[in-house]
C-alpha cells in the first residue's frame, strides 16, 4: 500500500487536533507516515502512532523556530524524496497553505487547498472542496506530480487506530533560502481560554443584532457553556464590537465546526462563505425572513437577548 505523508502541526511535541484528523483521512488513501519537525518533534510519536501513523519521520533544528516556513518546506521535500508518497496532506492553516504552495512548486506538483473530505480514487486521492461561497461542492484530483492537499480543520473525526509509529530521523539539508527571513520577535496573543476559532468543534457567533460590544458578553457566556470559540460577522467587527481575528466569512476566517450557532446574523453570502460547511447550523434571529434560515438545521425566531441567556442557563443546568 502506498504511503501518504502527513505534516504534523504541533506545539513543543503536543500534536494539534487537525493533524489527528488528517491521519483519519490519510488512512483512506494509504499508510500514513507523519513528518514532525522542530522542538519536541520526537515527543509527537506516541499520539501519532495511536492515530494510525505507521512511521514518524522527525527532525529537530533551531531553524524551524527561527525562520519562516522555508526550512519546513525543505524538510517536507526531503521526506517526499525519501518516501515517494501517494500524497502529502497538510492542515489548512495560514502556515499550512503557504507550506503546501511552496512544496507543490518545488515538486512541480498540483496543489488542492481547503479540502473538506478526501477519498481514494482510481488515479489518486480525490478531494472535496466547497467553492464559490459554498454554492458548489467540487471533487478534484491532482493530475501532475505528487498531490499536495491541505485539509480544513474539523473535516474528519479523530479516530484511534493504533499503528507502529516507528520513529526515524529525517535527513534534511537546508536550502540557501531557508534562512532568508528571520523571525525577530514573537508576541503571544492574550489567551481567552477558548479554543482557536478555525479549530473549534463548536463556534458561537454574534452579528449586528448583538447591538454593542458590551452585549457580546451574552455570546461569550453561551460559548463558554459549550466550550466553544466566539465568532463575529463583519458588521459586528466593523462596528468595533469584536476583534477582526474573530471575523467569520469571505474576508475573515473560514470555519467548519460540528456546530455553528449564529446569533443576530442575517446570513449574507460573504458570511456564509466562512461557515457554510459547518456540520450543524443553528440560528437565532428575530426576523423570520432572514436568509440565514435558508441554511440552518435548527432555527429560533426570537430576540437573542431573551433566547441566548435561556439557552446558556439550560445548557449549564443539563451539564450539572
Ligand atoms: P445584518 O445583515 O445587519 O443582520 C443583522 C441581523 O440581526 C438581522 O437579520 C436582524 O433580523 C437580526 N437581529 C437584530 N436584532 C436582533 C435581536 N435582538 N435578536 C435576534 N436577531 C436580531 N460579512 C461577514 O460576516 N464576514 C465577512 O468576511 C464579510 N466579508 C465581506 C466582503 C465583502 C467584499 C463585502 C462587500 C461584504 C462582506 N461582508 C462580510 C458583509 C456582509 O455582506 C454583510 O453586510 C454582513 O455579514 C452583515 O452582518 P450581520 O448579519 O451581522 O448584519
Question: What would the keywords be for this entry?
Answer:
27% helix, 320 residues, single chain, 16 strands, transport, alpha/beta, 9-stranded mixed sheet, Electron transfer flavoprotein subunit alpha/FixB family protein, flavoprotein
Percent of residues in helices? 25-40%
State the end-to-end distance.
Answer: 48 Å
Shape: elongated
Strand percent estimate: 15-25%
Element order, helices and strands? EEEHEHEHHEHEEEEEEHEHEHEEH
Strand order of the largest sheet: 9-8-7-10-6-1-4-5-11
Please work out how many helical segments DSSP would assign.
9
Protein name: Electron transfer flavoprotein subunit alpha/FixB family protein
Family: Belongs to the ETF alpha-subunit/FixB family.
Function: The electron transfer flavoprotein serves as a specific electron acceptor for other dehydrogenases. It transfers the electrons to the main respiratory chain via ETF-ubiquinone oxidoreductase (ETF dehydrogenase).
Domain Electron transfer flavoprotein alpha/beta-subunit N-terminal: 4-183
How is the secondary structure organized here?
Layout: E1 3-7, E2 10-11, E3 14-15, H1 17-29, E4 31-37, H2 45-50, E5 55-59, H3 63-66, H4 70-83, E6 87-91, H5 94-107, E7 111-119, E8 126-131, E9 136-140, E10 148-151, E11 166-169, E12 202-206, H6 216-226, E13 229-232, H7 234-238, E14 259-263, H8 269-272, E15 280-285, E16 298-301, H9 304-319
Parallel strand pairs: 1-4, 1-6, 4-5, 5-11, 6-10, 7-10, 12-13, 12-14, 14-15, 15-16
Antiparallel strand pairs: 2-3, 7-8, 8-9
Helix pairs in contact: 4-5, 6-9
This protein binds flavin-adenine dinucleotide.
Domain Electron transfer flavoprotein alpha/beta-subunit N-terminal: 4-183
Pfam families: ETF (PF01012), ETF_alpha (PF00766)
Cofactor: FAD
Amino acid at each position: 500500500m502506498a504511503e501518504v505523508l502527513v505534516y504534523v502541526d504541533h506545539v513543543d511535541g503536543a500534536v494539534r487536533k487537525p493533524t489527528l484528523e488528517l491521519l483519519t483521512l490519510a488512512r483512506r488513501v494509504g499508510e500514513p507516515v507523519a513528518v514532525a519537525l522542530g522542538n519536541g518533534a520526537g515527543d509527537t510519536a506516541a499520539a501519532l502512532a495511536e492515530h494510525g501513523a505507521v512511521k514518524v519521520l522527525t527532525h529537530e533544528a533551531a531553524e524551524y523556530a527561527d525562520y519562516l516556513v522555508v526550512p519546513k518546506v525543505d524538510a517536507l521535500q526531503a521526506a517526499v524524496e525519501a518516501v515517494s508518497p501517494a500524497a502529502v496532506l497538510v492542515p489548512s492553516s495560514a502556515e499550512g497553505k503557504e507550506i503546501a504552495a511552496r512544496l507543490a512548486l518545488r515538486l512541480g506538483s498540483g496543489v488542492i487547498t481547503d479540502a473538506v473530505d478526501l477519498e481514494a480514487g482510481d488515479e489518486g486521492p480525490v478531494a472535496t472542496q466547497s467553492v464559490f461561497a459554498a454554492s458548489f461542492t467540487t471533487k478534484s484530483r491532482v493530475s501532475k506530480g505528487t498531490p499536495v492537499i491541505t485539509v480544513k480543520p474539523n473535516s474528519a473525526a479523530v479516530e484511534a487506530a493504533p499503528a507502529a509509529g516507528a520513529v526515524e530521523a529525517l535527513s534534511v539539508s537546508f536550502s540557501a533560502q531557508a534562512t532568508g527571513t528571520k523571525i525577530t520577535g514573537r508576541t503571544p496573543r492574550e489567551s481567552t481560554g477558548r479554543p482557536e476559532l478555525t479549530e473549534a468543534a463548536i463556534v458561537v457567533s454574534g452579528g449586528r443584532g448583538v447591538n454593542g460590544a458590551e452585549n457580546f458578553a451574552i455570546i461569550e457566556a453561551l460559548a463558554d457553556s459549550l466550550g466553544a470559540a466566539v465568532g463575529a460577522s463583519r458588521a459586528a467587527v466593523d462596528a468595533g464590537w469584536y476583534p477582526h481575528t474573530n471575523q467569520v466569512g469571505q474576508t475573515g476566517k473560514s470555519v467548519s465546526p460540528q456546530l455553528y450557532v449564529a446569533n443576530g446574523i442575517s446570513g449574507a453570502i460573504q458570511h456564509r462563505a466562512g461557515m457554510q460547511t459547518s456540520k450543524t447550523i443553528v440560528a437565532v434571529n428575530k426576523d423570520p425572513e432572514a436568509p440565514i434560515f435558508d441554511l440552518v438545521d435548527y432555527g429560533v425566531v426570537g430576540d437573542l437577548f431573551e433566547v441566548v441567556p435561556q439557552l446558556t442557563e439550560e445548557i449549564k443546568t443539563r451539564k450539572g
